[in-house]
Design a protein that fits this description.
Elements (H helix, E strand, L loop, with lengths): L8 H14 L10 H8 L3 H14 L2 E2 L7 E2 L14 E6 L8 H16 L3 E6 L9 H10 L4 E4 L4 H9 L4 E4 L10 E4 L1 H14 L5 E6 L4 H12 L3 H4 L6 E5 L3 H12 L7 E4 L2 H13 L9 E4 L14 E4 L2 H18 L6 E4 L2 E3 L10
Parallel strand pairs: 3-4, 3-5, 5-6, 6-7, 7-13, 8-9, 8-10, 10-11, 11-12
Antiparallel strand pairs: 1-2, 12-14
């Protein structure tokens, strides 16, 4: 009888149960929860987490007052082994992707080409719909890919890939039950560090500007931001706040006008996306609000165009090529073998001092 190890128990119990169902080791219906807990040597909380994943994947079904029933012994995967195609899915059209994303795609194409694979890029807004199931199912039917790279993923997309057991690697933050390997910048740590820099300069009124795209990356940035303030601070008059903005320029300008019309307008801004830094700095300047004279700005990312901005922007940088190499290794392993450790590789960037960070105005 196979027993789980003590790391990632929910994930390992899920795999043990799934493999047991595939091999016919479990009778239908499954034993009760107490019996399963005893056999697997895990808590009821851990077992229920595993059963919930199997239920979402379609392996088992539950009826009130009855034991779990086995729905199927095998399940077809949408990722055929032997294919020499790797798919890349973006919920944003190509022209809206960052320079960093285009760089990584180019490096990934070259690496996969050297290994005999072709990278097919599918970038469209329809994949960022609240319920992308129809679009994703249609894509899988017409694309024979050994595995997929998700860039940048929405939570709904990640849920669909996990539920349908499609082999994938996330280029970005992966948070769907920790079942998907991912490579990303440590956005929580970056957000916390940036808040610490502002608070260290004496800023108490701090705002975070993030995209309105519902994604694990945005969630990570917001979580790190909130963790940076004690509860007493969060309830004080100088409460920090989060602003979610669309990519539309007009709406961003309206949002900024609203923020800075407040008597408690922020003296420090954290801006998640480099391209939004240009909008923030240029629009504030048009309204007579100086950076950093009236408000300090820190960008949580980097793009080469920021090297040509005056005043120089305080931001976080890292080695793009090294990042792309790590992602390529993981994707090639998944395409070659059909499996890869469920790692969450996090890269911590370095802070680059800029002229947009200063003490708050008196």
């Amino acid at each position: 009888m196979e027993l789980p190890q003590r790391s990632s128990l929910v994930t390992q119990v899920t795999e043990i149960l799934r493999h047991g169902i595939e091999r016919g080791e479990w009778s239908d219906p499954l034993p009760g929860e107490l019996a399963l807990c005893e056999r697997l040597k895990v808590s009821r909380t851990t077992l229920r987490g595993a059963l919930d994943i199997l239920r979402r994947e379609g392996w088992i079904v539950a009826s009130r007052g009855q034991r779990m029933r086995i729905a199927r012994r095998t399940r077809r995967t949408a990722s055929p082994m032997g294919s020499k195609v790797v798919g890349l899915l973006s919920v944003l059209p190509s022209h809206l992707l960052s320079s960093f994303s285009h760089f990584v795609i180019s490096e990934l194409q070259e690496s996969l080409h050297d290994a005999g694979y072709k990278l097919e890029v599918h970038a469209h807004r329809r994949f960022r719909a609240r319920n992308p199931a129809r679009s994703l199912s249609n894509l899988m039917e017409h694309t024979c890919a050994a595995c997929w790279v998700l860039l940048p993923p929405t939570t709904a997309c990640m849920r669909w890939f996990a539920d349908h057991r499609v082999r994938c690697v996330v280029f970005g933050t992966g948070d769907w039950s920790s079942t998907v390997p991912s490579v990303d910048v440590d956005l929580r740590a970056v957000s916390r560090h940036a808040v610490g820099l502002l608070r260290g300069r004496g800023h108490t009124r701090i705002a975070l500007i993030v995209t309105d795209l519902a994604s694990p990356g945005r969630s990570a940035i917001e979580e790190g931001f909130r963790q940076s303030f004690p509860r007493a601070r969060m309830l004080s008059e100088a409460e920090p706040f989060i602003v979610r903005v669309p990519d539309a320029l007009a709406e961003m300008k309206t949002t900024l006008d609203s923020i800075f019309a407040s008597p408690n307008r922020p003296t420090g801004l954290l801006v998640a996306r480099p391209k939004h830094v240009l909008t923030v700095m240029s629009h504030l300047a048009s309204k007579g609000i100086g950076v950093p004279r009236d408000v300090s700005v820190i960008c949580l990312g980097h793009d080469p165009f920021l090297d040509n901005v005056t005043p120089s922007v305080a931001r976080y940088t890292f080695n793009w090529k090294s990042f792309a190499r790590r992602l390529a290794v993981m994707v090639r392993q998944l395409a070659d073998t059909g499996s890869v450790p469920r790692w969450e590789i996090l890269v911590m960037p370095q802070f680059q001092q800029g002229e947009t960070l200063a003490t708050p105005p008196a």
